[in-house]
Design a protein that fits this description.
CATH topology: Rossmann fold
Distance between the termini: 44 Å
Strand order of the largest sheet: 3-2-1-4-5-6
Structural class: alpha/beta
Number of strands: 6
Helix content: 25-40%
Radius of gyration: 16 Å
Order of helices and strands: EHEEHEHEHEHH
Shape: globular
Length: 215
């Protein structure tokens, strides 16, 4: 049977992302193109979910759709503003994916979170909610990754139940954002090529990679 892969991307669209808006747009589009190139047509079916979030709304833009239906970001579709309901965005994405895969077999799930700010505006969910959900879904074989700028990414990721090997720390500049997205694109391609394993250290941390993302 073909392996069904559900790739989720939870993208910060808050005001602090404005400084790296163009790099985020181009980096996301490069990531999307990379996934399309890495998809194995003969034995993989890839579905993609994009959730954008700020304190105005948490929006599931694409909900488990084929890669061919995912639209690239533009300055009109990605407009950073307001505050950071990070926990609500993560839980919204988990619930949407639970619904999408209900009753299916031979499924792998990747849920990646990209933010340059810590939680400060969730109204429906707490850090404990997120930790319990990620812990439960990780035990079921889901893979969670955390790309975080200008914070102690390791501590924040760990507080939500995400392992250090699945956490990327980068500097929230245009160059840092671009390098982080390229690293994530490469890691996602490697994960897909490996058959989307349920136990996996997602990011290979090397000194030269750290220097690039800190540039």
């Amino acid at each position: 049977m073909p392996k069904k892969i559900y790739v989720n991307f939870v993208l910060d669209e808050t005001g602090s992302m404005e400084i790296c808006r163009d790099a985020t747009i181009s980096g996301f589009n490069e990531f999307l193109q990379g996934m399309r190139g890495d998809q194995k047509d003969d034995d993989q079916e890839v579905r993609f979910t994009l959730t954008k979030f700020n304190s105005i709304r948490v929006e599931v833009v694409h909900d488990a759709v084929p890669l061919s239906e995912v639209k690239e970001l533009t300055p009109n579709s990605y407009r950073p503003q307001e505050l950071t309901p990070l926990y609500d965005a993560i839980m919204t994405t988990i619930h949407a994916t639970e619904h999408a895969i209900e009753g299916q077999e031979n499924v792998s799930v990747l849920c990646s979170i990209m933010t340059d700010g810590e939680e400060n505006h969730s109204r429906e969910h707490t850090r404990e909610d997120v930790f319990k959900a990620i812990e439960k879904k990780t035990a079921e074989g889901w893979t969670f990754t955390y790309l975080a700028a200008d914070q102690d990414a390791w501590a924040v990721g760990r507080s939500m139940g995400i392992s250090q090997g699945n956490t990327m720390d980068y500097t929230g500049t245009a160059l840092g954002t671009q390098s982080a997205m390229r690293g994530h694109t490469h890691s996602t391609g490697a994960w897909m090529a490996a058959g989307a394993p349920t136990t996996y250290s997602f990011y290979v941390k090397r000194d030269e990679d750290k220097e690039k993302t800190d540039a």
